[in-house]
Amino acid sequence: MGCDEEIPARGEEMKGSDMEIRSRQLFLLTAVFIALAPCSFSETRSAQDMAKECRVALDMLQGRVEKSLENTLMTGECIGYIQGAGDVSLAMADNVKRFKVCVPDSTSTKVLIEKFIAFVDKNPKYTLASTAFQLMFGQEFPCKK
Q: What's this model's pTM, rounded to 2 decimal places?
């Protein structure tokens, strides 16, 4: 339908060509939603995969590996994940009575990465990165009573 054509009033029948155009538009709109749907799902990360990326991040930050695109992407993934998980953990500690952590303000992302890798290495039974991080956080930064 062009801009100058009238839209049929409620209850009026559409012409055959109008129905065809509307059907095509609906089909295209549906196809776009289906194509974009996978982009809207969250991704779960394995603890082992995240620890591997974080090892690369530590090596890159300490100048032990090449600053390639792949290493840079892994470093960004690790740092972003660890900082985000830390932020979530602190918000949880403020709002959930059973989860209390006391992380010193001076704790760097590098220290969190090192502690995460060590926790994953010692506790392979925790397969999700999010679970491993939460448990590491609670274990490494308990509040003193």
A: 0.69
